Amino acid sequence: MHHLYPDDVLSLLKTSFLGLSEEEAKRRYQQYGANQLTEEEESKWRVLLRQFTSPFIVILMVAGLVAVFFGDLADGMVVYGLVIANGLIGFYQELKAIASIKALKMVSAPSIRVIRDGKEKEVEAKYLVPGDIVLLSEGDMVPADIRLLESSGVVVDEALLTGESLPVEKLSHAVLAEDTPLYARSNCLYRGTTLLRGKAVGVVFATGDNTEIGKIAKRMKEKSPESPLTRALGEFGKKWVLALLVILIFLVVVGVLQGRDIKDLVFFAIAQLVSAVPEGLPIVVTIALVVGAIRLSREKVLVKHLPAVETLGSATYICSDKTGTLTVGRLRVEEFISYDRSKLFLGATLCNDAEKDRGDPLEIALLEWLDKERVNWAFLREAYKRVWEHPFDVKRRLMAVVVSTGESLDFYIKGALESLSLMCERDCPQEIYKAHDSMAQKGLRVLAFGYAKLSKVPESLEEVKIKIVGLVGFLDPPKEGAKEAVETAHKAGIRVIMITGDNLLTAKTIASKVSIYREGDIAIEGKDLEKFSDEELYHLLKRVSVVARATPEDKYRIVRVLQAKGEVVAVTGDGVNDVPALKVADLGIAMGSGSQAAKDASKMILLDNNIAIIVNAVKRGRLIAKNISKVIRYLLSTNAFEMIYNSLAILSGFPLPFYATQILWINLVTDGMQDKAYPFTKYEGDPMKEKPKSPEKVFVGRSQVFNVAYNGLIMGICHYFLFKYLLTIYPYQIALTISFTSAVISQWAVGIQEIGEKPFFKNPLEYLQLNLYIYLGIFLGLMLQLTAIYLIPHYLHAISLSLEHLPYALLCPLLTFLGVELRKWIAYILYHENA
């Protein structure tokens, strides 16, 4: 509607200045529906059931059922307790997320003044229909999308919708090009925005889901992507269990062909499956995420979705808004030029309707500047009485007053230089234009101030000839620490893109001040993104650091294009306009002072709106990812060892090296005692000097698989030959018990080695301090193992060992420890040679 004349809009909507008839309004209400956002609520039962359908959860449920079937009630209860707890947490989090559309639904005025049947009346906002003539005044929230028919001094806050940090002027008489972007449609008002000043008459042209906010709400129905952690663990779960099943079925078949007891083989295979499925991993991951979330809460970050803690550590792009995140969200005078200092100060004081903390943001900034310049503006307002005023004129973009001291009349005016220059008594000097352009080039919003001495109160502005007394430039300044935070992010391999609704000059200025925009980078306006295909845009975004005048669709598209290429994208936002991008981002981060809709669509909320908090949280996320990686490596190494050892023994025709109950016991005193301590491991080195890695590579990548296979083979082959030798010098029961004890101690040895990535003997004291809780877990496991061998050996098919047997039980753990140490030394030397 912005490209049509008012009369054409009225004709198209089949209405007039007299409004619709009540009968016609009712008919259109039936046709278009209520002026509210539709909400498709999913059954809570479906939401609950969905929490139990991920591959890893299904695997755990099967393993728990098998454990209960074969009498291991305790193990089964632990598994099902874990599954239920995780499911309920996920259920709660998803119900919270569903509230996001409800929050958008609340962005409307409860009632509104309209003209129907030629008479003014009030109706509930939900009953508005296209064609209604609406009356709005200062302070009103716009209830629908409206084309202005008449306007007087209308200034609107559109930050909620467009991200524009400054109020925008609206003009009913403007007719714009059809392709004019949303932020530049100066003749339209949009639902959810607020009139800061002026009065307006307009015609409704879109209601409910057809409004701009309604289009945003449709985006919110899209499902948020799985976190990289959840995705990686899901893929791992499928592959790991498939491999386990293939190996165990093969071993059972070989055992049957060898003439072994099928019942013992099946029980062995099931016990091995239960042990090899790392059911403790979800617990450890949850502990790591909870610990991280608690620490982040102390650093003013509220985590709504636990996997988001790790996601931040994997981020390769941060798409940040400007206002309130990179800047303080409050205008200040950045620069000024005075041609008559006293008159400039008086103009800023007297041609100003603001109070200390209330009024137009520009005028409040002027008062703060005067305070800084030690001007007692409150006293001056008392000394100079206003006797005439010309309120802010949207068309001419100026405001003027006449004040009296009792002896003379002084005229003060402020506004756009192009307006004030037309009122100069002589041509405006070129130096003033140059100064103005210089300030504008820096991204400053510039106000000019003028003065004239009068003999009488003017009847109109045309009577007055002025002299320019100064220029004042305003800027929403960068937050303290923002520059350092951005530079830290760059060092960590994270690309930061500022996406804002502000104009290009202002955006570039702020981006330069905080090191986002650097030499060689590209700054672009949102409307220009349409020129590029998704493939072209992705390559362009590698060089783009500023996207100005961005619409919600632009921000959404940028996130989707980056994700399609495997990037992990974090998005910050505070307005309704940010909701689509927040929803689909790998990590949506809302500002604590932002809209409720933005908070509901996000997975993390910053209680202190500052990018420095985000970058600090990246450190925490990387530590958590590293610790989860370590615990996965440890758990899979011990599981791989048992599979390799048992496979070699069965294929060689040896007796089984473990009973099923011993496999489950080993799982208890090693994995069960050590893995819960890994989330408390300290970081080695500086996490922000490393480049981001995809979670799949960190958790189950080639390096991880190699290390798991290496650890498993060392333990498996060592124990195989030890068992083979023991069978030649001891009865089976003694050989079995030594093997059983050796396996437990070997897994403790691997647990110690996997605490850190640097070699243990490089700095043993420093290494031991990485995580003292691991050694507490080993101590508890030792107590349990001594109990098993010396107090209840018959329950575990074992016997009490003598001092003669202990050296054999310690041989493989020592070789395992040294073998892993050798691997780490080789990796350490190669890393430093290539660094």
UniProtKB/TrEMBL annotation:
Bilayer topology: Multi-pass membrane protein
Q: Does the keyword Chaperone apply?
A: no
- Give the matching PROSITE patterns: ATPASE_E1_E2 (PS00154)
Subcellular location per UniProt equals: Endomembrane system
Please report the name of this protein according to its UniProt entry. Answer: Cation transporting ATPase, E1-E2 family
Q: Which UniProt keywords apply?
A: ATP-binding, Magnesium, Membrane, Nucleotide-binding, Phosphoprotein, Translocase, Transmembrane, Transmembrane helix
SMART domains for the chain = Cation_ATPase_N (SM00831)
Stored InterPro entries? ATPase_P-typ_cation-transptr_C, ATPase_P-typ_cation-transptr_N, ATPase_P-typ_cyto_dom_N, ATPase_P-typ_P_site, ATPase_P-typ_TM_dom_sf, ATPase_P-typ_transduc_dom_A_sf, ATPase_P-type_domA, HAD-like_sf
* Domain (Cation-transporting P-type ATPase N-terminal): residue spans on this chain: 2-72
Output the Gene Ontology cellular-component terms: endomembrane system; membrane
Entry's transmembrane regions: 52-71, 77-95, 240-259, 265-294, 729-751, 772-793, 805-822
Coiled-coil annotated residue ranges, if any: none
What are the protein's GO molecular function terms?
A: ATP binding; ATP hydrolysis activity
Originating organism: Hydrogenobacter thermophilus (strain DSM 6534 / IAM 12695 / TK-6)
